[in-house]
Records
---
Amino acid sequence: MRVSRDVMAKRHDQILSQTSKMLRRRGILGTNLADLMSAAGLTHGGFYKHFDSKDVLVAEATARIFDEINQRFEARIEADGVESALRAYVTDYLSTAHIENPELGCPLSSFGPDVSRVEGPVRSVFTDGISRTLDLVMLGFSGPPALRRERAIDLLSALVGAVSMARAVQDEAIHNDILDTARRRANRTIEDAAIDAANVASNHHMHIG
Amino acid sequence: MRVSRDVMAKRHDQILSQTSKMLRRRGILGTNLADLMSAAGLTHGGFYKHFDSKDVLVAEATARIFDEINQRFEARIEADGVESALRAYVTDYLSTAHIENPELGCPLSSFGPDVSRVEGPVRSVFTDGISRTLDLVMLGFSGPPALRRERAIDLLSALVGAVSMARAVQDEAIHNDILDTARRRANRTIEDAAIDAANVASNHHMHIG
DNA sequence: ATTATCTATAGATCTATAGATAATGC
DNA sequence: ATTATCTATAGATCTATAGATAATGC
């Protein structure tokens, strides 16, 4: 029942893809190899020809999650510019679709606490992913790097916290309250930063002129 | 080997206490009955004389966690007033002690995502706990209720997100960057709200006088 | 007589491995 | 000849239960 290298590569990819979804839907401990291989259309016995252990799989899948999210961000920057990309990132982050489909969303709000309980490759891959996401969010702001970084951390913290809370609460009124408030806050943060940038530019122009 | 009702009540309490810590340290799936009963100084066989199931235990322990946190907040309000209590809450939340000892801290940042994956009593108890925490944080702000609620949600989201991220990252520089930024932001939020309140009070006074 | 705890274990589930099978790739 | 997958299973672990034991409480 051996398959060609091509088919095997596709299956390897499929296992990683299913893992990247299951991790965000069920968490690290809730992700089990039997369900995973079944979702990939295989039996669990074949797993170890693809990965050395569950831990290695989780680390690789986590790297893929951050790669995909960051690449999506970069593509939007290319297409519409940094400000527009940041707005789209925030709108998507606080959307109902993101709340209801964690398997396609940000790993910070879906299994960040799981990662804080492990050591090794998973943890360092996650650290690197957060670092690169912060670098991208920074690009959406203008001004000196320290200020841009501060704004990026504040914005991302607010997004992660709001989605974590909104997903945990059952009460629809509180749920909507959290998301609506987070949307207003995020928009205000972005608008204020844009106004600051415009004022700095205009003052700078006066000094020159 | 039967024990007195008094001793049994103390052991029941001890099981709940250990669970409240283990939930925050290891998450729901990471909390197992054998380790739990062992931590409570008992063998695992006796568990079901105390609780009907793991699920019931988790729900009761979660209720206890929120009760303790909210009672601590209320006690500080009694002792030092609402503004001071809110400042202390924020300082504690973003402290190194809280980052390193999740088992004594806020359940939102330690196992909020775990809760979003379950239904039933655990979820509703968690929802109620968040609701009551928001009510307490609101007290720390002045102004119309809608504004106070908005500020409470914004502040709590920022705290939850910052601690989730800080715990997940391994890199010390990023870790400190996140916490320092969150501390500045939280203090600014509280200061700005206080200034707003003072201005409103002073304007109000002028109109009267 | 009742019952809280203990030891032991059932039954399910999880990661990982062993051996057979059949297709690939040299 | 090599090897990716399959079936089967080892060994560990988890929730939950059964039966024995000994102390409580009526």
Note: Chain B touches chain A through 48 residues (CB under 8 Å).
---
Amino acid sequence: MSIVGSQSLDQPFVIFHAKFAASETFFGKDQEIFGESEPADCIYEVISGAVRSYKLLGDGRRQICAFHFPGDIFGLENSLSYRFTAEAIVDTGVRVVRRPSLEFMATIDVKVAHNLLNLTNRSLLHAEHHMLLLGRKRSREKVAAFLLEMDERLAGTGMIALPMTRRDIADYLGLTLETVSRELSYFRARGVLKFSGITQRQIELQDRQGLEALDC
Amino acid sequence: MSIVGSQSLDQPFVIFHAKFAASETFFGKDQEIFGESEPADCIYEVISGAVRSYKLLGDGRRQICAFHFPGDIFGLENSLSYRFTAEAIVDTGVRVVRRPSLEFMATIDVKVAHNLLNLTNRSLLHAEHHMLLLGRKRSREKVAAFLLEMDERLAGTGMIALPMTRRDIADYLGLTLETVSRELSYFRARGVLKFSGITQRQIELQDRQGLEALDC
DNA sequence: CGACTATTTGAGGCGTATCAAGAAGTGTGG
DNA sequence: CCACACTTCTTGATACGCCTCAAATAGTCG
């Protein structure tokens, strides 16, 4: 229904131009790709795997601002340093472009500049949508929205293979991992979803309307 | 300390170019400037007054995404329709530019395109910062962060004249108005702030460090 | 298989919401 | 200027949703 969160477009962004794009780089599970307040040298596109980007409070409380899946671009900054930390959730391959070369291209290629703006706007759209969730939705509605977003971004088939832990989900939704688990159990008990695979991360949506009714 | 939320720059943005800028338009208190999902025709700069932009859930729960003060630009979109509703908090004057003329300028003037990107990035920075607040801070920390943000954006002198109600503050912070009121009372009882004017909206910060300690 | 991590589930507590009533502040008309 | 109606704000009592702590189960990896 909503395209929020998806970075896929009808046409690929002209940002990772062949002439400037570096080859694929790999990061292992839980490996940091860049850290908050590090110099923002590079921009990344996920090739395979999944990435979380988050901010921390002084005492360790964590807010995951976004998950990035294959095709998504992250690490776009206009300031000198990154605004958050990015980590691979599972083994992940990314394409890297150095910022200076991108900015150079933006000055000579209108299409690149336009795509940069589009990408940033897309992130902003997602962030504003997520503010509504964080500030005003209850735990059940948050988890419902999460499942619908993941289904849409990962497959759209109702068969979801989550790469992230319950804690990641909780830190994305502003909940605890126990509350996330309880709400998933609630949905399972109601037949809204079931754990289809051998693990608890493979989820099959049985009643999408039941979730959409909660997504408001 | 933080520049989050402030849209002021060393140099003014070259967006409201003399050739294209319309004259000042006025909106009365609580008047809608544009509505969510209306066609995004125009872009606005606050001249005087204050604006809130918010999203709603189906049952009326409201999340204020941002406040806009003189000098701030809002209503920037890349999609066809606005992403939220904008209302004047008090009597407000705004400068208006039609989007098509702005987009035209962006194609012929690199500086305009660059400023558009900068503005969008600034909004994104604020949104991500606010997600951390909404998802992971307690009510006291939220109110402390709010007071510091307002001080910085409205004056920076420690004398704050809030244009918005407790309900607006609550909907910005993901709280109820009663909780906001209680936390303000708490800070007042501790001598962190006092109500300096004849109304409860004029606040004088007595102990900024006390607030910054909570802002983390 | 054994050690470890991730997840579920239960019991109880805390923080914020809800409901309610009164005080403070604002605006209007006489 | 005051009287009155209305809105906003404060404060108290209580309820409840989510968090915390704890322990058992499920899943992963050597």
Note: Residues 165-167, 177-178, 181-182, 184-185, 199-201 of chain A lie near DNA strand C (CB under 10 Å from a C1').
